[in-house]
Design goal:
Largest sheet: none
Number of helices: 15
Radius of gyration: 35 Å
Structural class: mainly alpha
Number of strands: 0
Strand content: under 5%
């Protein structure tokens, strides 16, 4: 009778005497589930790895910022070093060819570097007369350009001139309100003339000092290149030994070094061929159009085109201005600029693509961003070294598994 009067909850409890998980309250059923709150509070492997990824990403970003700051601050050290290493990679095959005919590397490196320096100095000396003649013509060229601009746009309203006039009137009104007397025109002109001469002198001094600094950096780079060429593959063997005792790591190091060597030599070979052809084509174009200093403009075109994209734009604009000054015809100037642009595109893009092949090509956006970055970092030398350094980074990223996303980002396909 007592059993019959027992409540359902009591009955449930008595019929399961060995069950320790019998719910005593209605909410206890949730705690009997195998996936209870204590199991949910325990983080899984993915949740534990998420903060670690954030920490690693932060460390990588901080390290990159520190490296960029170091490269920027220590430019006098790193810039000659990088130029010397790239020069050593470029001229290495010539020294190796001399070594095969039993010429010691120390002597072969001196012969190759002396030949390169002599070639550069000889070319500058051969064009010195044209360069001096062009420098003598600069004042008359500037005056003629100013005259052409005044004839074309002098009678039209110029927003900059209006803003300048308004600023002058406001300055005069402010001086009258403050009780200051306006200085005589002669004193203003004298001061303006003296200020202009002073600014010109400061610009010339800054340019001369910058040229001396760049020349010293180039001499240091040639000295570093000489020691690298004279040492042969000593540093290569040292890097292979530093990679570790593992055979796979040593093989990976050798593959990366060979890839870097191949990328730099291929790029420099293609650059030499295309720039020489562009220089010859521009020389012929200027000579056919009857423009002065055609040989000098050909050399300028070959040198400027070393800088990708930006060099083509500068060359096109300079050719148009030169044609406008000498021919004094806008249509002729536009045609000369268009012909120069066509030469740069046909040879610099078409022939360059055919000679380079697909495996050494990079994304144009990455190349342009690299030009901006290295130009900001090291100036004109950074613009010249941007593409070889990007090729080195791409070669390393293609061989290291952790850097495959970087290689995919830099690749064109």
């Amino acid at each position: 009778m007592a059993e019959a009067l027992a409540s359902p909850e009591t009955a449930t409890t008595t019929t399961n005497p060995g069950d320790e998980r019998v719910p005593e309250t209605p909410g206890a059923a949730a705690r009997t589930d195998p996936g209870d709150d204590r199991a949910a509070e325990t983080p899984g492997p993915a949740e534990r790895a998420q903060p670690r990824r954030y920490v690693q990403a932060a460390v990588i970003v901080i390290a990159l910022v520190a490296v960029i700051g170091l490269l920027r601050l220590a430019e006098p050290f790193f810039l000659p070093l990088v130029i010397g290493i790239v020069t050593g990679y470029v001229l290495g095959p010539l020294v190796t060819a001399l070594h095969r005919i039993h010429v010691p590397r120390s002597i072969g490196a001196g012969i190759v570097l002396s030949a390169v320096v002599a070639l550069g100095v000889g070319g500058m000396y051969a064009l010195s007369d044209d360069a001096v003649r062009f420098a003598d013509q600069l004042p008359s060229i500037a005056k003629k350009l100013q005259q052409l601009a005044h004839e074309r746009f002098g009678n039209k309203s110029n927003p900059l001139a209006s803003v300048n006039k308004a600023a002058t009137e406001l300055e005069r009104a402010a001086k009258e309100a403050s009780g200051q007397s306006e200085s005589p025109a002669g004193a203003v002109n004298a001061r303006g003339s003296d200020g202009g001469a002073g600014r010109l002198q400061s610009v010339l001094i800054a340019g001369t000092s910058s040229a001396l600094v760049r020349t010293s950096e180039l001499l240091l780079a040639l000295l570093i290149a000489y020691f690298l060429l004279a040492s042969g593959d000593t540093f290569r063997r040292k890097l292979v030994r530093i990679a570790g005792p593992s055979l796979s790591r040593r093989r990976l190091t050798i593959e990366v070094l060979n890839e870097i060597d191949d990328q730099i030599q291929r790029y420099m070979f293609v650059l030499l061929i295309t720039n020489v052809l562009i220089g010859l084509a521009v020389w012929g174009l200027f000579a056919a159009c009857g423009l002065d200093n055609a040989a000098l403009w050909g050399v300028i075109a070959a040198v400027v085109h070393i800088i990708p994209y930006a060099g083509t734009a500068v060359l096109t604009g300079a050719a148009g201005v030169a044609a406008l000054i000498q021919l004094e015809n806008v249509l002729s100037a536009v045609l000369v600029a268009a012909a120069t642009l066509g030469i740069a595109i046909a040879i610099g893009v078409g022939l360059n693509t055919w000679l380079s092949g697909r495996f050494s090509r990079m994304n144009p956006v990455v190349v342009f961003a690299g030009l901006l970055f290295f130009g900001w970092l090291w100036g004109i030398w950074g613009l010249l070294l941007a593409v070889p350094l990007l090729a080195v980074i791409k070669a390393i990223a293609e061989r290291v598994d952790e850097l495959h996303p970087v290689a995919e980002l830099m690749g064109e396909g």
